[in-house]
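sry for the spam today, last one i promise. struct tokens for design, 88 residues
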């Protein structure tokens, strides 16, 4: 295993956890800014429409994907700067 891969594993895990928390906060803020009161609906929320549930799911997925990609890329760049090689 390359040193960059070994160095990236714990960094990637820590950043992934942080990214999940940040994505959750970002999604909640986005949901409120779109004019929705309260929390986003769960799939089993009986009082919400299909449309609202599916819109919330699409937005949440998009936010999580963007945050994950940004954090993964940033972590890989940081490892390359520290070790001189790109992690696999």
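last one done:
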């Amino acid at each position: 295993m390359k040193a960059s891969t070994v160095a990236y594993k714990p960094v990637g895990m820590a950043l992934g956890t942080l990214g999940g928390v940040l994505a959750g906060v970002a999604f909640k803020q986005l949901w409120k800014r779109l004019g929705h009161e309260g929390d986003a609906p769960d799939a089993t929320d009986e009082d919400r429409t299909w449309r609202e549930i599916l819109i919330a799911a699409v937005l949440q997925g998009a936010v999580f994907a963007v945050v994950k990609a940004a954090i993964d890329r940033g972590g890989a760049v940081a490892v390359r700067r520290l070790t001189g090689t790109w992690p696999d």
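The mean pLDDT is 87. ok im logging off now
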